[in-house]
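BUG: 3D viewer hangs when loading the predicted structure for this chain

Environment: internal workstation, default settings.
Expected: structure renders.
Actual: progress bar stalls at 90%.

Input used:
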Amino acid sequence: MHPDLQPGKYLMFDNTAVADAFRLRRRIHQPKRDPQSPVLTPDKPWEGKCTQPMRVVFDATEKRYRMWYYVHDPKAEDERKSRQTGLAGNVGAPQPLYVCYAESNDGIDWQRPPLGIFDDHRQSAAGANICFKGHSGAHGTILERCNAPADERYVMATCDWFSTELGGVCLAFSPDGLRWRYKKNEPVIFGHSDTSNCLVYNAERKVYMLYMRGWHAAAVNWPALGKGNPRRRVSYSESADLEHWNEPQIIITPDELDTNDFYGIHVFKYEHLYLGQLWVYDDDDRATIHVELAFSHDGFHWSRLPERPIFIPHGDPGDPDGYMVFPAQAPVIVGDDIYVYYTGVGAPHNLCRNAPVIAYRGRLRMDGFLSIGADHRPGALITRPFILQNDRVTINAAAHQGEIVAELCEPYYHEAEGKPIEGFGAKDFDGFRGDNIRHPLSWKGNSRLSSLKGKRLMLRMLLTHAEIYSLTI
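Structure tokens produced before the viewer hung:
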């Protein structure tokens, strides 16, 4: 049985808040570039041709944006491979993939502060904004922990190799996000997880959730399948203390509607859901990567919309993002806007080594990842029951030359449709014909529902050329 809804905001990804819907369709909304031009391009010698945002945050106290981003130095990669150390020359110095740091007042124009921490094998450390090099490289994400010890406020999950035999997902710690150290020069999970290695804290269960490259994959060591390595999958492990991790297991795998590879996923908490930016890799055809959205209530069991809509598309061949896009770890919420930072690559995966890798910013409205709505044919929904504890019910919605009509009813067992409450029926409703992220529903000019507080209600809505992003009760 579904419990009654509790006070709060509900997104429309699934039927958590909806008892039934009729002739409505869910739609993923793609972030629109804001601005159209890139916000970060490689222009320093140590950046090679790559500036790939891994984490962007907005510091509300200091009113500034902070960005950690990957850079790739092909010359350093050539030098290391010439030494023939480890996995195809992938172990030890010089590291070709490392992390830099930038700041911005508006999220568009970025400054590279000279940190003086690392050099780039070409110039002194004084002029470089490199903040992390690791031992052999860096593939990971950054998590800020407000209640952690001061010298471990930030933790980075990254793939690193300390020797030809000792490598995997490692954890580095920092007091400020700039000066990092390994507590142990060994992995917390062994294996070649050369993907985003996304680290997320689950406050409900008080565990750290780690998303990485798939373990125990089906396509391993089968020459007939034509792959010398496991197909790319999303694997999962969790820990309560960042030291003891359970056995990794594959949790997201392609099905009959997909291509054969999921390159990685970036997971973040948004309202009552965990949202996952899933990297869909077409390894069988054009070697492209686009991003889809998955969603979960616990971070472990994941769902996707059946039509597999694209969240961040790659561009057309010849465009700077013509073949691959990679999202930053999580969107940035500033005021009523959601900013999605992502990377564009203008070459297919198997030919991208020397292609420019540049950063863009997209924008969504608040709660604007997905909506449920109707076209010219009216559609309807009715929520699950809830006991009204607030003075208002609000919607984040847009009517495109159409209208939303609502009524409150009580889940009365003698009337299967729900018994409309006198004064709060459809005939009394002030029709919604606008575009508003916080519109209070009102009846005969009154949006205050004090007379109904404590009553068990259901909300029924009729939509025509309109869509709803979220509902707050």
